[in-house]
Amino acid sequence: MITEQTKQVKTILRGNANRRTALRLFGGSCLAFAGLRLGVPESARAAALTREQRDALTPDQVIEMLKGGNERFRTGKMQAHDYLAQKRASAAGQYPAAAILSCIDSRAPAEIILDTGIGDTFNARVAGNIANDDIIGSLEFACAAAGAKVVLVMGHTACGAVKGAIDNVELAHLTALLDKIKPAVSATTFSGERAGKNADFVDAVAVTNVRRTVDEIRRHSSVLAGLEKQGKIKVVPSMYHLVGGRVEFFENT
Ligand SMILES: [Zn+2]
Q: What is the pTM of this model?
């Protein structure tokens, strides 16, 4: 008779075997959040990251995994996710590899466009992907307390919050939020029309905004800046292109 404990051990062993297969197949560098089932593409992904798997990854490997997930998304080759199984696998503990700060825009759902599953990433979403004390505190929790290796700040093209900041929109509590984006407007070098109706300018400001957000995270969080100096995490600016679906990862300077 197979006990529940034996079943769990067998599941773990099977997982490790598949993980080794996946590492062999993908050169050990991009195990991807496809995780334990990478070598069996016809199966739905049922596993969540384990602590051992997450801790074995470097920040650069996590970035490669996120890039791989976006590649699957934009080429229509996303993993089949068994969310109920992932929910069961992660209920007792979470070991996410990354924390993503992105916009509330309905067209930029980070887990989908990066093809990640339950338990893979922390997600903070706020209009214009700005940083404030609460957001930075959340990222500190994700990295310093829960062990995430990457903070990905992800802006996107055609961002309404950025457009609103350019056009000096005022609306109740939104006004103060847009004020946090405005320094990116003045800091953007641009030769064309500097108006919200100019899509190129909106996107140029959005790039400045993600870079400024990354700077702000480093400047205001000695915890995250310290982890990055030690090589334990990387804070990375990026832009999601609504047309085409590509997440552009910028050089981490
Ligand atoms: Zn937006």
A: 0.84
